[in-house]
Amino acid sequence: MPKKTKKPAPKLSLVAPAALESMRRMRIGVLSVLLEPGQPYSAVVNVHVDDRFRLYFACHRQTRKFKALLKQPKVAFNMGFQEEMVNNFQIIGKAAVIKGATNWQELFEALELEKPKDQLLTGLGEMTAHYPFRLMQTNDTAVVMIEPSWIRWFRHTPDAKAPQHVLVLGKE
To answer: Using CA atoms, how far apart are residues 74 and 34, in angstroms rounded to an integer?
Structure first.
């Protein structure tokens, strides 16, 4: 049997540091999964982005999105939909459950982030922060990580004449 070779990590573009800074300010995104072939499904999730562009979110294990990503871990993710500005990220990646982390506090401690509670709530309004960050502290909760293989940034900077699609990670 031939030995499996590990694929090289997708290459980051020169705009990656600015893209990461922008992504980390965003706390809500839309996860898209396949419930079954030909039946897509999307759900809004609260998200955290780490220094390697990995996205983390928590969800109940009984949800459609969770059951779907266990069957088909390839997912799409979108974040940054603000009417007042063009600053949007389109992401394709693979989802995996973080074993042993049943809540955000455990996840951030495992990632060795400082002040995990501040990281949980910074940038979120009282209503948004209340769910799922404060309520989802049960054994029915799973923490999911998305390892991106492709990220495109759609933005319109003040100095640009028109919006731009900029590849941050992967190939077109």
So the answer is: 9
Residues in the chain: 172
Which helix (H) or strand (E) segment is 22 a member of?
helix 16-24
pTM: 0.78
DSSP designation for 12: B
CATH number at 16-169: 2.30.110.10
Residue 143 has which token pair? 């923490």
Distances from the Cα of 105 to the Cαs of 112, 121, 137, 163, in angstroms? 10, 11, 9, 38
Decide if 81 contacts 103 (C-beta within 8 A). Answer: no
Q: How far apart are CA 13 and CA 53, in angstroms?
A: 13
Taking the C-alpha atoms of residue 25 and residue 60, their distance in angstroms, rounded to an integer, is: 24
Chain segment 55-84, per-residue pLDDT in tens = 988 888 899 999 999 999 999 999 987 666
- Alpha-carbon 142 to chain mean position: 14
**Token reading at 57:** 């979110």
Q: Which of 71, 94, 96 is nearest to 148 (CA)?
A: 94
